């Protein structure tokens, strides 16, 4: 492995440069080198003889060609006859990294742990190995061991040599331990170091913030995700929903409306959310417009429920013709006459007598109305016929309305009015 201590090793790389550096160090007296935090490592630095060095170089060339099995044979042979902790450490390290490259993670971990246990490598290499061991512990879900090894690496590596991915590894370990505060702290350090922070880092931070119920910070993180990855619909929806949770419906509407314009609101739930946000912000025209288009495009189910909602919303926007159109669609989908009755009310208010008469007749024909609604339907049907000059039909319908308690008095008043009108017309002729 390269002697650069700040790179997460997910793949094996040749170590020729490291071998040259190690071979150049002569054997000497024990050195007082720093070990774990608060401790010192006593390392007897060694040297490689020329024959061992050349065979190692050959093995690393095979690694560079991804001939891992051939390299493994050489490393194993050399280790079998190597003397001294220094050379044994190098070979255990090499075998561990070769096993990693071959996907044999248990074997890789054993060899790397052996290299650390021998305590023969210089600090920079020793702690780089601890970093790789932390990765392997994490892969094996040995979380406490992984965190301890990684914290040792952080302890010994100067801040200026640390990299973002090391903090991401720490955040990932802490996430498995459900230490969400630690996750946020670690991932923030990664982001501060990274030239181009990755999407999955922000996603990890977002998950931790949700767990901590730190919603304002979650909103800020989602704003970054929306800006950095604007084609991801989920981020837009999550941001809108979190603004709703923060009771900032104006921002929720802004986010959802922009997502709609970008063509991202493609499900019934999306359309209903946006329409509801417009309605909550007292913009019923836009709410109805969005809902109507969703219905016409087949995104929103063309049922009585949603056509009625569209009609109500158009009515709130004082777009009465559009409300009537929506109510007509709702009535066609309905099993009873309630919606046609409502449409009849509106048409009577607009004095559109022919259409009102048809709507009210449809309501009575479909049925499913209670006594109060039935009485009112007959009463208004009589009114439409009266205004159309069909006095006999008006009288018949008011007579039927008179059978219901809720409309008996009104029906009698209209019958009296009809008699007066007939008398007036007779006198005029």
Automatic annotation (TrEMBL):
InterPro entries per record: TPR-like_helical_dom_sf
Keyword Signal: yes
Annotated signal sequence range: 1-32
Family matches, as SUPFAM superfamilies: TPR-like
Gene3D superfamilies assigned: Tetratricopeptide repeat domain
One record GO biological process: cell division
Residue intervals passing through the bilayer: none
Keywords for this protein: Signal
Keyword Signal annotated: yes
Protein's recorded name: Tetratricopeptide repeat protein
The organism of origin for this protein: Marinihelvus fidelis
